[in-house]
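Deliverable D2.4 — example input (structure tokens):
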């Protein structure tokens, strides 16, 4: 039969999260760090959607095709998907703010290396 899609989604999401965390921790370029944050966020979105997925499940509409007694085992949970849609919008706006800060930092120092921004002001 093969691997269930929910397991495949979990593995894919966790791999994306690891790649994103590696990108944040290893790289010194601000743009690569921003890409790492985006990859980490995308991985968490995939993991959250995978938690609500039911293999062979159906839409959570209780009618003749899905009786109320079988809804807990056969219906796909819509809440994680709704939360992820909201999280995608928030993640997009956070990425836009990070990129705008990167533009301002580049204008100030003419570099995107975080080593140039390590002095303290106080």
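Example output (designed residues):
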């Amino acid at each position: 039969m093969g691997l269930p899609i929910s397991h495949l989604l979990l593995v894919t999401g966790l791999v994306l999260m690891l790649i994103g965390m590696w990108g944040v921790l290893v790289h010194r370029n601000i743009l690569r760090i921003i890409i790492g944050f985006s990859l980490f966020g995308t991985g968490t979105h995939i993991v959250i959607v995978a938690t609500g997925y039911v293999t062979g499940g159906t839409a959570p509409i209780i009618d003749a095709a899905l009786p109320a007694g079988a809804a807990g085992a056969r219906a796909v949970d819509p809440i994680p998907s709704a939360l992820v849609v909201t999280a995608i919008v928030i993640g997009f706006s956070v990425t836009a703010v990070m990129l705008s800060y990167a533009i301002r930092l580049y204008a100030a120092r003419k570099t995107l290396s975080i080593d140039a921004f390590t002095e303290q002001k106080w």
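The first helix runs from residue 5 to 26.
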